[in-house]
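Subject: sequence -> structure tokens, single chain

Hey, anyone have a minute? Need the predicted structure for the following. Not urgent.
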Amino acid sequence: MHFANKTSKLKRWSPYGAVGLLVFVLFQACTTQKERTFSLSDLPSEESFTVITGETNVGYLKLSRSGDTLITDYDYKNNGRGPTIADTIILNADGLPVKWDIEGSTTFGNKIDEHFKLQGKLASWVDVTGSGTATVGEPTLYIDQNGSPYSLFISTWALLNAPDSTLNALPAGKLKLTQLETFSVTSPDSTQLPLTTYAISGADMNPTYLILDDNRQYFAFIHPHFAVIRSGFEGIEKSMRQLAAKYSAERYEHLQQHYAHNYAGKVRVKNVRLFDPHTLALTGPSSVLISGDKIVSIDAADASGENETEIDGAGGTLVAGLYDMHAHMGVNESLLNVLAGVTSVRDMGNDNAVLDSLIDHIEGGVLAGPRITRMGFIEGKSPYSANNGILVESEEEALAAVTTYHEKGYYGIKLYNSMNGDWAPAIVKKAHEFGMPVMGHVPAFSNANAMLRAGFDEMTHINQVMLGWVLTPEEDTRTLLRLTAMQRFPKLDLNSPKVQETLNLMVKNKTAIDPTLAIHEALLLSRNGETWPGALDYIDHMPANVQRSYKEAMANISTAEEDTAYSQAFDQIVATLKMMKDRGILIVPGTDLGGGFNVHRELELYQQLGYTPAELLKLDSYDMANYLGQKDRGAIEPGMLADFFLIPGDPTKDLKAIKTISMVSRGGTIYYPSEVFPELGIEPFVEKPALN
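Reply:
Had a minute. Here:
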């Protein structure tokens, strides 16, 4: 399925998370402004850009201008899905929007019907979250909900004109443009083209990176995995994405330098109770002594020693670090996971070189991040391919990919949608010879039973299992059908022979399930204008634009019948998972949403399957460590890695207590979320503990 981290509205631009900020200008005449560097005549009459992910061209952005009207056509398809967006923007004489209409569909099919108008000083807009108005006095930037990336260029010029390159934003916030560096590239005509990179920041958790040429014309929007680049320059897009990776890394390296505490000598966390996965209960008052990256001893609550930094737990609870068993890691997600107490993740598919570099930086202490277990992603080549890992066109190439991943030390293999399902038995056999488990999606035109008979050790996403019960053999799950067909789930008889056959195979083969229940909740239960159910407990702590993004549906739900079908589909998924749990099938907690707070939600949802809070704490720490053969973590005991977090409450009574984290130890490096969250625009949940 591969959902990105839902930390911003801008997943419509890129499949890899919060990668941008799309804005345009409401600008009133102001005598204190700098001399304008933008006018309508500066815009070209036609221009085109190529959308690239994983070094593969997946779409386009086209611009046309007639007089004061600017029209953009934006479309890309990666992994069988992507947005289709059309903007019509009317500009004033200075090239600033006074009317903007946006139509199309988002990555997962939600309909776009957004409108903005500026009449005099009154600005009004309508998007999927509702409508709004504002009286515009000073120069102000409007942050749209679902436009194309081109308006980012217009906003950049407005910020270049503004005092201190800073402007207020609507619906809320303040934006700032920062120039990063200037360099040159070779044009198709062999001349040198000077370029300048910029970052827009202030209204979201992370900056947006873009490039202008020496005439201050839009050249590219860049992200480590994704680029929208001027046509003719596709050959250099990788180096442009590497710039984005560098800028992002530098930002998070700075945060690591300032907020990762490596105290001299030993560290003692005093006056705490420990969650014990063996008894499913809290211990009596204790203290935990750390030396280096290991737990040295568990002592009396008020114990002390020489050369120790003491952290006062104030009677709170220590819990061993959690796992996200379905991650696609990036720099942003790395820090957010640690701050949420997620100290270990299983990466289920990535740009292999980017992931290896990220791991090196985390393990070297340059970046904050969890411990990462790598799964080797193998995908078949097709028009619907996910451009990650290794793409193959034959069984022989697939087997060679398995060998490559084994030689590089990957833990296991993940197969994806465009794979030929007939190759699965040979792939599984080869992987098992290396001691590597195999898991993944059900390849298109196959079903879960075939993959179970091929020897899958784990099924990925609950919908991938259930689709085999509702689809006909010729239906193509490489498209959004693998999501929209969930509307058929309510009609399923879960006691029917076809359902029981699959469950029997899973029990017989001891096959686990990574259901990613939280993303199914987001897809099936999110509605335009309503806060996502999974974000209700923390949305008020998030930046304004993130709050707005959590009030947008993922799917296109246009009728009352569809609304009911999607809601009942989620109920049917929960019922299926409960049956699996009751039959002893291992539930593996993964999010595919970037981890962090979403791990907390994944566990909360499992309470509907019959787990107690204590059982869930054990499942997502001790049990997952043992499942992956990682005997050095999962419990707070002498000799274990010092991976744990501190909360004031008792999570065995109320699982939501794990949201209020005051301290995290990741291998003896101490983080206080209340220090770091403001840097990301997040309001802290609890104060940091006292130090002695």
